[in-house]
Amino acid sequence: MAGAGKGRTAELANDSVERTVTIALVTPAGPTRRTGNRISGGRWARILRAAGHRVRALDRYDREPGDLLIALHARRSHESIRRFSQLHPHKPLIVVLTGTDLYHDIHVNEEARESLRLASCLVVLQRQGLRELSRSLRGKTRIIYQSASSCLGRPGDRSRAFTVSVVGHMRTEKDPFRTAMAVRGLPPSSRIRMLHVGAALSEDMAQRARREAERNPRYRWLGELPRWKARQMLARSHLLSITSRMEGSSNVLCEALASGVPVAASKIPGLMGTLGDDYPGYFELGDTRGLRRLLLRAEGDPEFYRSLARHCAKAAPLVRPEREVHAWRQLVREATAG
Q: Has residue 54 been placed in a domain?
């Protein structure tokens, strides 16, 4: 045990003596400041600044000085990636791959594929992301799980209400009304109620949410909330429902795991790469009846609910902040070692 303690002390000491570098961190602009990509980019900037590096947070790279480029999104950041590569062909260039990259763009879009070739290092945010890459690219790819701090809350009395939360802006790839559809046909004996947090990114989505709230007494749309408030609401929920069609990873999944909230999740690689292949809380993508059965079982079967909680607790160490901090600091050290 004493030796292990010394090893950990040495590791922390090595982390603290880093060469300061200037990093251009490109996160493409989104429809709102609180998109998952913006949340991720902001967290990485804080991690790297805390390590003593100078970080320039950009929507796109022009000619800003930098020792290193970190770009989120192979296709949408392609112009920035190509420009940095042309101006600084011998400087390290890290590309972080999103769900849209992994599960669509790199298979059909030449600009996204060029970004993969130009990168000196690729980052995927969960282990199944590696499967989408050719063997020639896997050698320069790192897995860095996203992280979240714990936000403790206490769910209410299950005999009065079983709260299922949906957290995320309304976009087609999130299948945002699947959970609302699943709770429409529940038996009167069920105490399930659904809270939906997130902005409607189109008027059509807003109208649909308002109509759903009018005709579905179990559904309540709270709109876009400050992040601290959304996290409090999640921590006080009995279950998080993630119905996404496509994910590179999921900030809200990390937040649920960090706060001890079990999850109902669509069975897609971007979620399975964190929760594991054997997680019992999956439903098939787009399967409203399957999700309805899963929600009712989580509400009515205490042993099944405990099994969800146990599996989530097993995955929770993957999203600890110190793990992500160490991974990013190590990657920047390696990338700039020359």
A: yes
